[in-house]
Amino acid sequence: MRLILFNRFQYGGETGHILSLARFIKEAGFQPFLVFAGYPNSFAQKYRNYLQGLNRFFIKTNEEFALLIHSLRPSLLHTHSPADFHFSALLASNYRLRWLATVHEGVVVNEKIIRELQTAQFIICTGPTAFAVLKTLGERVVLLPEGIDLKRCFPGEKGELLTITFAGKVEQKNAHAFNALCKAIDLLERRCFRVIANVKPSSFNAHYAGWLPSACHLLAEGDIVVGSGRFVLEGLACGNAALVLGQKNSGLLGPENFTFPLDLSGLSGKEPCYREIFFALGDLYTDRHKLRRLQSQGRRYACENHDQRLIGEKTAELYRRALDSRPAAAHDLS
To answer: Which of 5, 126, 162, 224 has its CA 20 to 30 A from that of 65?
Structure first.
């Protein structure tokens, strides 16, 4: 059964989510086609190298996408970018497709998004924040967390030097938090600071890796991951302790809050302050027993709740249920 996984370029974990999902959906008997819109040429080349064995297309316009659907004749469309929910609903109506939407954690759900999701067969929320808003739409709203490929994301050998990795998108709304992190880490002695992001850090001592399609190989060597969303989960799977930092400082994940589902949005907590970040990281710097305990607990949490194989099976079941429902009709879009 042919289906399209559709995403629009942005710095974030959505692309990693789709790549991981596609591999497992293929094993479940579906034929996934990955369609990426608006990817800069340099990034398209990076992802081509990472997409070996998967059908993928890089498009620039909605017209190209419509022609692609006409050519491929898929049965399902699964859209991951809120910017494309309305267009996806129109395509589903015009081509009599079933379509699903994933609302990733960190997306601020507003009335516009809710209207555009009216004809989706299923709405998948990857975290509790979006689910709390959208669950009023009924049983077609499903909480299905991020899936992590545990064969690709696993702990590596940890060195004596404390290694802290920031992974994520930096933009205006969270730049102050990122700068506070850089300032805090510069105050720590004998540590390695790695940054996987779209902008260079203000820290002069940071190792800047740029933006990477996958960060697992670096996270495997790390001790603490800092960020939000999927990157935190990948860090946990790779045996890191985690500090959730987005627009807000949600703090260290500890034994008292390793309960499913975790709020990894970075939208709740305190205003980021370099002093509080410094003391939180410094606590793990001086107490290695606590650090190793949090690393072990984080790995166990990721394995028990975010195994991509199980998430992929649940997603495939939603696809089958969507195929049994009627496609969107034009009058449904009013």
So the answer is: 126
